[in-house]
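As the next step, I selected for study one protein, both as residues and as discrete backbone shape codes, as given directly below:
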Amino acid sequence: MSRISDCFAQLRQQGRTALVPYVTAGDPEPSETVPLMHAMVTAGADIIELGVPFSDPMADGPVIQKATERALAHDVSLTDVLRMVTEFRQQDDATPVVLMGYLNPVEVMGYAKFAKAAAQAGVDGVLTVDLPPEEAGDVISAFRQTHLDPIFLLAPTTDDERTRTVANAAGGFVYYVSLKGVTGAANLDVQAVGEKVAHIRNLVDIPVGVGFGIKDAKTAAAVSRFADAVVVGSALVRQIEQHVNSMKQGRIEIGKLLGEMRQALDDVQSVEQVQHS
């Protein structure tokens, strides 16, 4: 069982929802990433999603685009990101780590070489935003040989046929993009998202995570009522942007926000457990 599957199994037994924070590796500078990863775990993160900087982050809004630019200003490469995961694993061998990024850096390294290096570093899953499952056969094969979970996105516009295609290709969990648009965009229609996730569950037999539009403890709690995982990115990256020159305070603010979200998620589960007892 992978770290991701094991994490979800444990949370399911506890009646809890996974909290999955996203940050861009190397933002605001490479030395800050690993301490930030540990701080997020301390604050209540169950899985860490680590963005791989790329020059054309087409799925990301302005907040994460700027984070990518700050990381690339330090020439942070895919190899550097794997080194960060290796360093993180020196102290934490339990928390799952998912890399989120784009196909180009993986393709340049080579699928098999990347899969081997990622597994050796301690990566558990890879979400490649611009890789459609219909074209992912070689990538999935390389990942599965090294026990990496290939994670795919579902959107509000994804039809049932394609959802089944994603379900057949995916491992770990599927990531439902709750908004039409880029990261950090718009306001969340929680009821509509809940209805879509309920429908997805009829077609997918692995956990469903929900991201894009999770801004605070209130929205995280609302989404946790129907999602297996709540993914938060732009709200955290915005804190980094505001504390570029004082990341000690930035880690405190990020920890505070995650702590509020973790408490809100657990409060929802506690109420539901009382109602069903």
In short: The beta strands are 18-24, 48-51, 97-101, 125-128, 149-151, 153-154, 174-177, 208-211, 229-232.
